[in-house]
# Entry
Amino acid sequence: MVVEQIIFIIISIITLGGGFGVAVTRNLYYAALYLIMALAGMAGFFVLLGAGFLAAVQVVIYIGAIAVLILFTIMLSRRLMTATEPQANAQWWLGGIVATLLFVVLVAVVTRVDWPIAEAEPAADTIVQLGVSFLGSYLIPFEVVSILLLVALVGGVILAREVDKE
Amino acid sequence: MFSLVYLIPIFPILAFAVIVLGANKNNKLSAYLAIGSMVISTVLSWLVILATLADHHIQVEGWSLSFPWMPTGTEIFNMGFAVDGFTAAMLFMVPFVCLLIFIYSAEYMEGDPRYARFFAYVSLFAFGMLTLVVAENLLLLFIAWEIMGLCSYLLIGFWYERESAKKAALKAFLTTRIGDVLLFSGMLILYAQTQTLTFRGIFEPAVLEHLSNTMMWGMPVSVLVSLLVFGGAVGKSAQFPLHVWLPDAMEGPTPVSAMIHAATMVSAGVYLVARMLPLFAVSEIANALPWVAIIGAITAFFGATIGIAQNDIKRVLAYSTISQLGYMMIGLGLGGFLAGIFHLLMHAFFKALLFLGSGSVIHAVEHGAHHVNDHHTDPQDMMNMGGLANKMRKSYYAYLCGTLALVGIFPFAGFWSKDEILAEAWLQWQESGGLGLPFWAWLAGTLGAFVTALYMGRQIGLVFLGQPRTEAAAHAHEPGNRMTIPLLVLAVFAVIGGFFNLPEPFPASGGIHYFAGEIHEFSEAAGLHLEAVPFTLSVALISTIFALGGLALGIVLYKDLKAEQPDPLEQRLGSLFTLLKNKYYIDEFYHQNVVMVVVDLATLCAKFDYDWVINPIVDLVGLIGKGLANISGKFDQVVVDGIGVLGTGKIFSWSGKQLRLTQTGQGQNYVLVLSLTTLALVAVYLIFLL
Amino acid sequence: MSSVPLSWWLVVATGLFCLGLYVVLSRKSAIAILMGLELLLNAVNINLVAFWRYSTPQEIGGQIFAIFVIVIAAAEAAVALAIIIAAYRQRQTIEVEDFDTMQY
# Structure
């Protein structure tokens, strides 16, 4: 179905374009915005793949929480908002080469492997499956992750608070 | 009975061992051990003699005991003891004379700090001489010969504080060594030719014939071996030209002179020649006997001539010994086996008597010198003596007996023995006619007898007669019994000894015929005379006239000599006397031409060693070693230390310095490395596995 | 069956991954690096869900994994940003080049 492919290509362009923007732009604020663009594209991908819940989670958490957090941090480090000097460090060319090569090699690998393709369709109620799994077979990771979140929360507060000058 | 014969030498060597190992602290015990062992040996010898006398067969054929001793290739060399008539005769003289001398020394050596050592040495010597006499083969004889040479060295140098004694000991040893080397060479050639060294084996007619027919170096082997063996005898018996050690050997104590250098050791040479006489005599082409007689004649005359110019009492006797040994060689050399050994036996008795007597005289003068606190007078110089006959009656009479025996006055022992030799020479001269060897031998012997009498007369006159010439002599006195009694016993033998072997037609003649021994068997073909020589009146008269004349002349010239007067003979003979006094300058000649040559050669070798070759080589090797060590050290320093140790350290520290540059502290660098690695891995996966 | 083959998804995920890698390797600012890190994680998520969709659609494990990734990314971003703020307060800079006390 050509339509699906076209939609796929458009969303790819958005995502990859966002990524590219993050890589290139000098302004950090703009970089954050490009990131949001990429993340949005990601949500589109998830919809395309039939993982609707995941798309929602992506938008809410990634864009709504993480990207906003990044924006806050950028604004808190004020001087950096309007910096115009080159953002690339000394090894950018080497990084570019490595990344390119890695892309080439990985693509070569990926297209050559005979991935096992299943004929079946996914169930209609993936959310139910998700819920059952979280409190069923994946209970322990679920609980551990919640502890992790707690720790991150506390840690983040401690790390970022103003130190009293005594 | 005969099997006791090996015990005869054992007791003296036991005495030696015991004295050396412990008894040398106790003087009296040492003397008793030595004398006691000699008593036992004497008794055993007497038993053997009696057994021999009783058994005529033994006298002729001999008895022997041998046992396997040393493996030599495919055979075993035997050692052994043998007894025959000749051995018995020697066994009569040797232990007895040694015993008397031991007793004499017990008093003579009193007060000497090394008294016990003296008895150890003389016991060892007695062992040597007795073994020599009972030896069955030349090797055992040679071993005993060498033992006696060692004891001679030790005893001549007994008073080693004296430089002259040390030198004399060494001179004796080295001079006789020359003879020993010749003897040993003879033994080697003999063994090579005959595969045996036993006397019985050598004198087998077949062996003798083989030896006389085989030629080696242009002469028959028998002659060659005989001359070599005679060379040994020339050394040991102090014949010309190896006589130079005997006068110097008088440095030893007087008992030593008596025993070793008068009665026994020097007669070992004569014994050897007598034993080997069949070998000397056998040959159709040529034989060695004339040489024996020639050397003997020269020695007899010339030894006596030196004796008349010596002032030391012992030196006169030493030259007398040399001369008398020459007489024995004359006897043997003319084929007169019995004459030769008869004189050997008689000479032992009276020469020992004379030496012991001189020892008594020396002791007396020494005591006299002590008495008057005179420490400068030489107690051995006859010019310091005189008139001792009144002071030492017994010693004087004994000495007189010895003198008369030596000079050859009827009826003393020396008359018979010397006369037999002269008669032998005379008779051979009469038989052969012309002026050959026997004539010259007779002439030398007779003239020698005159000179012998002259020096003995001179000695009697200077020592015993007239008035004392020094205070020391005036205070001399007779020594004790232990010294006087042996003198008297020997004097008895000096008087009656001759009667053992009276020539025909006297009654009881030919006694020594009993002692001819094995020689009988082998001698017939060789033409040896084993019968007693018939009494020849003309010879006896001529020699007696000469002897009496010489004796009288000597006594008359010297008996009234005063202290400051010059020597009468010196006055009359002038430069000839000086020549005689200096012993014909032979010692100087040897020193210049033999000793210095050897010394120069040794110096040359030393130079070779030290300066020219060996030391420089050693130094060079040392330098090379040092150089190599240096190189090695440098290598060690530069390569091992520098490159190896330090270098390795530097490599590590350099690489460490380089490697730590990778720790930039920049996280992004680390991620880059990670990515590179991942890239590499995936690429590998791609290339090799897909 | 979907008309988009699996390999397209994987290529896109790879491209996003390499872009994120490039950002991590070559930006000076710590916050930019964090953004690159988020891109990496998202690329991983695409892979996970694509494989869930094409290889094991009956099991929900792929989506579960992706949800966990998102959650952990969130926690990690929070902590990282807190660190960056604290570091900015100390050093007045957030260029990672300046945090070089771990240098030899």
